[in-house]
Structures are given as C-alpha cells and as structure tokens.
Amino acid sequence: MLNWTCKNTVLQFSENYYTQLDGVAMGSPIAPLMADVFMNWLIDNVNKIGCSPQIICRYVDDIFCAFDSKEKMDQFFYNLSFSKEVEADGQLAYCLTYKN
How far from 9 is each of 2, 35, 38, 76, CA to CA, in Å? Predict the structure, then answer.
C-alpha cells in the first residue's frame, strides 16, 4: 500500500500527465506522516549512518547539525535531499545577534 501511495501517483501539469518516480508527492495527504517517520528514523539511526554530527537537533521537519568539517557534512548528507547552510566568516546566514 505504501509503495502504491508513494510511487504510483499521477499528476497533471499543462495538459500533460506525469508519474511520481520517487518520494512522496508534495501536497499528498500522506506527505506529513512520511516526513515525520523519516525524520524519526534519521534521529534514531544517526550513529549508524557513518559520519555522525557533533550536534543534531530536530524541530518538526527541520534539522540542525554541526560537523567538524565540510567533508563530514557531505558524507552525512550524501543520499539525503536537505538544503545545507555552510558557515562563512564564522557565522551562519540565519544567526541572530543580540545587543544589550
């Protein structure tokens, strides 16, 4: 049933029909559940993946990881489709600065 739900989805765009090849279609009712299942699996198996991060935190469907090097980060995310933010000048793009 899961295979049918994820792989046999047909969508229409500009009068053409397309079949979902991999993953869950955006907007699918099962997408939030599958994202939650995968994120739980990732957190539970982070040490088995190979290059485990120094810090790993999850919030809903976001994940924050800190690595010793860019090479370790690339190894960790080798087969995963996450957007990555790499530090520049010792800061991340979304770091907040608080002033007293």
Answer: 11, 17, 20, 29
